[in-house]
Prior knowledge:
CATH superfamily of the largest domain in chain B: Lipoprotein like domain
Largest sheet of chain A: 5 strands, antiparallel
Number of helices of chain A: 2
Largest sheet of chain B: 6 strands, mixed
CATH superfamily of chain A: Immunoglobulins
Distance between the termini of chain A: 42 Å
Oligomer: heterodimer
Amino acid sequence: MIRRLxxxxxxxxxxxxxxxxxxxxxPLAPEPYSHPPKLxxxxxxxxxxxxxxxxxxxxxxxxxxxxxxxxxxxxRIWRGSRDPYGYQEVYPAELVYSxxxxxxxxxxxxxxxxxxxxxxxxxxxxxxxxxxxxVTPWGVLLVPGHSxxxxxxxxxxxxxxYYRFVTP
Amino acid sequence: xxxxxxxxxxxxxxxxxxxxxxxxxxxxxxxxxxxPPPPGEDIRSGLTKVAIASGRFPPxxxxxxxxxxxxxxxAARGALLGAAYTIxxxxxxxxxxxxxxxxxxxxxxxxxxxxxGVTAEPAAKVEERVAAVARSLSPRTIQNDLVNRVAExxxxxxxxxxxxxAATSAVTLNGRAEYRSLVEDGIRTVLEISVxxxxxxxxxxxxxxxxxxxxxxxxxxxxxxxxxxxxxxxLTYSGGRGRTLAEWLDDxxxxxxxxxxxxxxxxxxxxxxxxxxxxxxRPVKH
Lengths: 168, 286
């Protein structure tokens, strides 16, 4: 009996501990968990996947990815507040930090963020395609059992499911 | 513990509201809950010179699930809330609490109805506040601010030339705009942007709920040569910080600031979707 209960108890716990799937460039530090990771610095260093990813090249049937040139990255950080509708209990209330055209898929935040505060953040690639400026969609978490409102293609803006962290 | 109970009740309300919206019982003016794919590169290659036209009508304004109007509605909502809080609170105590709640629910409902009946404001006063908020909004300004913001963002983010059309510059035929005359000016596409609805949305069953701004905007990309629709979408801004109807009315600057924020976010999303975003390639499903 107890042996049967073990997976029932530990599998959900293991699921909570596993990083979440994302839509967009995946954060490498801090990693995306359902509970926002607590950082050690008020000026965190954020890292994410570079673009194009191996999977983009592999799945690109129309061939546009191979024509991508001059890739840079846009980064945004918002102060989070409680979402009144409780979808994800956090809402991008105020844009506090924004950088465009970052050359590398990493950035050391140049200002001190507020202590003990939940922040949302996201990145996207900015690039040239046949000489025209283009971007990838902003990265968001894919929370298990999420509602349509949290879908990356939802008609509802702003998204509630940006990546998250909490300052020390 | 009370916070947990409130959270549980809120989640339940959100879930029920979502089901209602998805079932088509209530909800947004939008026909789809997901955006269509952005225009392809074949369409975007023709977007070097774009005229932006705004809606020529005042957006609909409404209060959705606003404050209870009068003692009767207040008492009814209070009864529901009292019952829900009793069940929510008792459920935290486990199975015994749930059993006990079946006896306590009527007590919670009666208590809630008394509180609701006493605290709800008269219907006339609520109606007057709704009318006052509606009067404080300038529909023409809201439409113009959005198109100007889209043009500004478009110029910053793309290499295209954006012209904001004067409201009188396009021919109107049977209520629909025609843009064929723009061909002579070398304009091949028009981006039509209309704020179709502004709303302050609360939560069902609360007596004086916190209301959040919602702004629904329709976008159409039209080819001027034949008025063919190249792309269309609808977006809804859902605000974060809510306030009661009285609070929104007391400080008009707060509502203006929230509309400005909605305008900025929606404008950027429109520019992203129409001109910039390229979705990641999708893995082939076997």
